[in-house]
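Incident log, entry 3
Record: Carboxypeptidase Q (460 residues)
Problem: checksum mismatch between cached and fresh output.
Input:
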Amino acid sequence: MIRTLTTLICFIIFTSLNAQTDEAVLKKIYTTSLTNGKSYDWLNHLSIQIGSRLSGSLGAERAVTYTKAELEALSLDKVWLQPVMVPRWVRGAKEYAYIETAPGKTNTVNICALGGSVATPSLGIKANIVEVKNFEELETLGKAGIEGKIVFYNRPMQADLIQTFDAYGGCVNQRYKGAVEATKYGAIAVIVRSMNLRLDDLPHTGSMTYDDIPVEKRIPAAAISTNDAEVLSTMLQLDKNIKLYFKQNCKQLADVQSYNVIGEITGSQFPNEYMVVGGHLDSWDLGDGSHDDGAGVVQSMDVLRLLKESGIKPKRSIRVVLFMNEENGLRGAKKYAEEAKQKGENHVFALESDAGGFTPRGFSFDCSDANFNQIINWQPLFKPYLIHYFEKGGTGADVSPLKNKSNVVAGLRPDSQRYFDHHHASNDTFDAVNKRELELGAATMTALVYLFDKYGVKNN
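Fresh output:
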């Protein structure tokens, strides 16, 4: 009798849920997120109690422990850690720099070491400066104009581009490859204008590379705040003979073991078809990484919780993956994709949130025309929530390795106008994240996951 009654109740719940319209399900998802969300509380702990989470750091280790425990508390079907070896770079004592206009006459400027840079000599570096906007100018000046000097890359982000990630992409090569290019012409160091659309005093860090330059020939690289980049440029126009001094104490240590954190709701009908939502658990060390990418981490965690709270039993297996080491290596993403391939796992859909916790506007997709047409048909469902951006384009660094010919890979696209005010800087902190905007992002991600799980991925 009891078994029969239980079966009947389950049947009624199942029938009731499946009888709901998509509009009703989405409304429940958004209502639950905005009135009973967990993302903001999780982010509070991740940011305030743990703080920055650079790969290999104590903060990263504590974040792994914390998020694993929180996922286990959701009573998911599976929660586990995936080991991955990650680089360990440490900043050391705070950097110091000044412009010298004459012996004893100096102006202090704000800099920070770029992630992966070598240190300066123990007494620092002081030399004349040559300002360039791009690598072509560097080549034109050649060895005669650059040898023994500090190269100052001063190409601003393009302010008239509405898509600020396009502006970022248009100038980030000077940060990433600047040291490599300057070394060819005998430069002794590089200073790079921060990737920031506004003028302020905060230097923004970020990854850089030396490619295959031998360790003994690597030159230090630092970012300078946009305000100080303007000052330095103006002073150079007045006097080409001014000098820049800076000292930084960073160091590359041996790789250490860390983990991707993974939780799963196993699919009721197609358990071997996997859908992933994720963000990266690591962050740079100047702030606490709330927008980049604490927001994406907690939103992705909340997707699984919101599905459960809304009474949705997914047909396909849905995983949250908190990737380690996106910022300076992408090793977590590569490890996850590599093991998925080895196991023959069929990943039909992957969604990443790594563009900040601002108001969601929509998604970008890497998919076939057939799948994109299906997405466009869902636009009216999102209209009540002011979600309108559905475009083909770049998705996310951590989910990109999962892309194949038949699946769909997507990225959440929040409003990006203020994102680069905080990106990789000391003001990427919890107080910069709006609770409602964060929760709207979690709900929007959950809605898209629900629809792809219900209707599937088109194979043609």
